[in-house]
Amino acid sequence: MDDELTRYFNDHLAGSSGALLLVEEIAATHDDPEACEFFRRLKQDIGKDREVLEGLLKRIEKKPSVLLKAAGGVAARVGGLKLMWEKVKPGELGMFEALEMLALGIQGKRLLWVVMRDIQPWFPEWADVDFSGLELEAIRQRDQVEEWRLSAARESLLSPERMKECAPSAPAAESANPNRG
Considering the entire predicted model, what is its pTM? Predict the structure, then answer.
């Protein structure tokens, strides 16, 4: 079964290769200095998470798959073809879609840490790993990316005319929320 776990880890390592490329592209093309800084820090965080994952593999005497990492990079570039067509620029659909893909990937990482916490008792090699802390960090990352995603949605999906004409007032927007009680 460790082979299946190794494959699962390698799938996540491949996904993180794509995420690194995507974050780099977002940081390079965003026109907001705060966003550029956020995505540069996020790239560092993703790199640290990759190191944790590679360390977990080494602890169970498995090696990351160079082939799968390369496949992840290729898949990211293929997925990036659509984004290159759409242009990952602020105010464009490509930026919104890039942020949406990134948010989904981070949610996948969160789910990875949840599973690792669940199976941790069967891996004494991981006794000192704080999977709950890693999950909380992934939630923080996802929530921050979500703020940028929603902003990009408004910029790319709403026409300037609609934004001016139909801007919701704060009280009306709150009362329209079915989750408010």
Answer: 0.80
